[in-house]
Design goal:
This protein has 391 residues and is an alpha/beta fold. It has 17 helices and 13 strands. The longest helix has 19 residues. The structure holds uridine-diphosphate-N-acetylglucosamine (UD1).
């Protein structure tokens, strides 16, 4: 069997890592790894490949930034010849970024079946680009690998047959559990002169929060109030940097802006924080496993299990509500929760079990529909080594 795995943006890298580790443990499955180049800064991309021991991509499409249409179209244009040439049995796409939908659409039109990892999540907010990407990718994928129970419910509601739905758990949590001990060795707290449990972490990058200066100023004012009680560390996503630079008053608050961190430093930073405020999807899930109170600065979430578990609270974008919730959360102790079902480090193994035993693939091989199954690229997976040097 020949799998082609696609990754494009930072949150994809944590999701493909455990699939590549699991593939290294198994024989008989060839891998082609494609990086679309949607994220290209070293701190948004290469650092994650290094720290997570993901093999170097066989192909980098180098698409870079652009409007949604340009970025999506460019990924489609550049992935098509790769798929034609390499003819994988399955294309695996993860998450909900533009690279996900672009590669899924190109593959199915070439007759190559698609597996979507993290299928079925729905915010029911179609103004979010990611919601459109999720809906479209799920509609054309053959295998829908779901991370939490709401995903199964959503797909059933949309009329997807049960045979396509596989509740396998959360690959991003596979990565967190595998990396947690190594992350503890990061020196990031010393470097930032922070004491465990005595600071809050903020990340913001959603267009709805950072591209509208009125909304962003309100959020920053709320953070400024919370920062009077607890220092706030804010690793800035490239998209957010421009917005921050436009608000001169920010320089006087107790919010500390830092460069984006690598996976291990960021995991340690979050694991030792008192509180997280974010609009990220992944961080809602990571804080659920780490037992850290998380305030989500959005009106909705596509990850309701994180709210059910008690770690995540949706507070929206209203500054008064954010400050109130922030002050309440600071009085909370770390939360001990039972992990959601199948958030146990085995999601990638379950995915590969399903694909390896799939009747669809067996049929393709029997009919010799697919082309040569030679492995075109390197498979020398570099596992994260014990010689981790904190950045
Ligand atoms: C993308 C995803 C979002 C995901 C986020 C994680 C889509 C629609 N959105 O949003 O779901 O949560 O990644 O980070 O796919 N830039 C750089 N260097 C980089 C990457 C981006 O400077 O390495 C800048 C560029 O100016 C670019 C902007 O950031 O225009 C936004 O990047 P883009 O990939 O378009 O979307 P994100 O906001 O990162």
């Amino acid at each position: 069997m020949h799998l082609l795995i696609v990754a494009g943006a930072r949150p994809n890298f944590m999701k493909i890592a455990p699939l590549t580790w699991e593939l290294e443990r198994r024989s008989g499955i060839a891998l082609t790894l494609v990086h679309t180049g949607q994220h290209y800064d070293r701190k948004m991309s290469e650092l994650f490949f290094e720290q997570l021991g993901i093999p170097a991509p066989d192909v980098n499409l180098g698409v870079g930034s652009g409007s949604h249409a340009v970025q999506t179209a460019e990924v489609m244009r550049r992935i098509e010849p790769v798929l034609v040439e390499r003819r994988p049995d399955v294309v695996i796409v993860v998450g909900d970024v533009n690279s996900t939908v672009a590669c899924a659409l190109t593959a199915v039109k070439l007759g190559i079946p698609v597996a979507h990892v993290e299928a079925g999540l729905r915010s029911f907010d179609r103004s979010m680009p990611e919601e459109i990407n999720r809906l479209l990718t799920d509609a054309i994928s053959e295998w829908l690998f779901v991370s939490e129970p709401s995903g199964v419910t959503n797909l059933h509601r949309e009329g997807v047959p049960s045979t396509r739905i596989h509740f396998v758990g959360n690959v991003m949590i596979d990565t967190l559990l595998a990396m947690r001990d190594l992350a503890e060795r990061s020196l990031v707290l010393d470097q930032l002169e922070l004491a465990s449990q005595e600071y809050a972490v903020v990340t913001l990058h959603r267009p709805s929060n950072v591209d509208d200066s009125a909304v962003f100023s309100g959020l920053m004012a709320a953070l400024g109030e919370i920062a009077k009680l607890v220092p706030i560390v804010f690793p800035i996503h490239p998209r957010t940097r421009a917005a921050v630079e436009q608000i001169a008053a920010l320089k006087s608050t107790n919010v500390r802006f830092i460069e984006p961190l690598g996976y291990l430093d960021f995991l340690k930073l979050v694991a030792h924080s008192k509180l997280v405020l974010t609009d990220s999807g992944g961080l809602q899930e990571e804080t659920t496993i780490l037992g850290i109170p998380c305030l989500t600065l959005r009106e909705n979430t596509e990850r309701p299990v994180t709210v059910d578990q008690g770690t995540n609270t949706l507070v929206g974008m209203n500054p008064v509500r954010i400050v109130e919730a922030g002050l309440r959360s600071l009085r909370r102790s770390p939360i001990s929760t039972v992990p959601p079902q199948y958030w146990d480090g085995q999601a990638a193994a379950r995915i590969l079990d399903v694909l390896a035993g799939s009747a669809t693939l067996v049929r393709r091989h029997d009919n010799e529909v697919s082309a040569p199954h030679t492995h075109p690229g390197s498979n020398g997976v570099r596992r994260a080594s014990a010689e981790f040097t904190p950045t």
